[in-house]
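Subject: complex prediction, re-run

Hi both,

The earlier run crashed halfway through, so I resubmitted it with identical inputs.
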Amino acid sequence: MKNTPTPVPHIAMAPSLQATRVYKSFVSGLVNVPVLHGLTVSIYPAELTLISGPSGCGKSTLLSLLSGLQSPDAGQASALGEDLGKFSMRALERFRLHHTGFVFQGFNLFPALTALEQVQLPLGYLGLSDKESEKRAQRALDEVDMSHRAHMRPAQLSGGEKQRVAIARAIAKQPQLLFADEPTSALDAESGQRVINILHRIARAHGTTVLCVSHDPRLVRHADRVLSMEDGAIRSDWRQPNPAPEMKTS
Amino acid sequence: MIPLARKTLVYEWRRFVPAVFAVGFSGLLLVVQAALVLGIFGSAAIYVRASTADLWVGYPGTQSVNFGRTISPDVDLRLRMEPSIVSVEPYQWVDGDWHSAQAGAGGISVYLSGIRTAPDGMLFARLLTPWQREALREPGAVIVDWADMEALGVQVDQTAWINGHRVRVVAAVDGLRGLGGVNVLASLDTTREIGGTDAVSGSTYMVARTLGPAQATQAHLAQEGNAGFGPFEVWTAEQFAHRSQLYWMFDTGAGVAVLFMAIVVCIVGTVVTSQSLMSVVAGTAREYAVLNALGASRGALARLVIEQACWIGGLGLLLAGGASATLLGVASAYGVPVAMTPIVAAACAVLIGLVALLSGIFAIRGLLSAEPALLLR
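This time it finished cleanly. Structure:
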């Protein structure tokens, strides 16, 4: 991998996510631990952006600020041109409902629901009818190649399959922003590869902004852009010169 | 909308069992307590409820049937002058001391009720068969409740002593158990002999049957001048039964104790139910956090918890209903004084519902740990 010290400007599109001089610190016991120090970054749609770095470098914190799960101590985090700091909690929930999807390392599926129902569940909060949500959920499961397991519960699925259901749950709302936190860390090589390919395909096919946080080296080769973080700051910003084709999986 | 609350309840029913049992047992405690109260204090009015009289006439201010004082025999005359009254009969009440024939047995307080033995007698008409009433004509004949016979140390056809007078148990009946003392039925003559009174000195109560509504006769009797007949007060049977029950429930402090117990049961039920529900919610916190990250509002998640609480309340109600019906059935089969009315049953159901609802509201605190930012590593 070749790192370039200065970010390559993305000419074609306006950024969909922006952090401008954001600061964030956490209190640990009696000590105030600064995590992000005046970080500025722009993330663009239709590509898979990977934030990598060692544990505790602040990559997950950056993701939480850009997704509106947390607010910065200072600075501005904006998504789709909206300043997230100006939203009330309810407005933030509405924004997330309409525009964002999340994939976490733990799959966090409801044990009682089948794969199809897991994907349908968030669609209900959008006010879709059962028929419409079922149609959309089927499509999302198709996209992650899980329609054949649509009526299985989490206990009957492998780790990779659970993560694919979690991705289907995140994308069924057709969000413009998709956040993934260590989506492959708990998976074996083959399952991890499938998940990477799916995330990449979603970015390309739907123009979705996919922001992925991971320290999984396998992901780096498949990202369109890699931001390396260290001690709460971005150390390098590297962009794939020729996007690699998706790897085949058996 | 995917019915998440119901599906989780069905699929992971084992996790909800403690909460359902907590609600169910709270309900069972409430119902049994209420049934015992109704049963025990209802027996304070057994004399009124087991009789077919429409009006009860006694000493003014009498708080409960067992506190009756002698009224003048002239009251009988006054009642018979009333055109709407079709029949009148006296009720003689004597507090007695029962000694069984068994050697070494101590005395037992009994309430001796002296009643008319004619077949159309109103007193205890709902309890006695014609032959039992007729059997009381024999001097010294008494009737007791089956359940009291062991305490009285006597069997049917055996003899015992009340206030030093020999009596013989000619029959035993069901439903005569009272409050404060053992009820014993005898004829007016037997009772007067034992009590050392006679008809001229008056009786404890007069009871009457009316042609029209009892209230109208009661009002008419109150309006007319009753001077010269001695002091007396007239109640309808319903009023006098209530008066007796209310005295035992509230004036003795027993009602307050029962109310206090009901509050304790509700509080304990709510605490236990909310704790078990909260542990279920906290166990699903990560899944709830993902839903919140995906845009389901905190309010929507809270509604899920309340919905689960309502299902738990419903199941607990069924459990309480089934268990209470069985337990009360067994209790009444063994002569334990229990009773239930639709209003009290409905009140218990409402309280059980409240226990479940409050538990749900308290369990919402479990959602505090459903913070989406905590899902990020």
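Chain A has one domain: 17-239.

- K.
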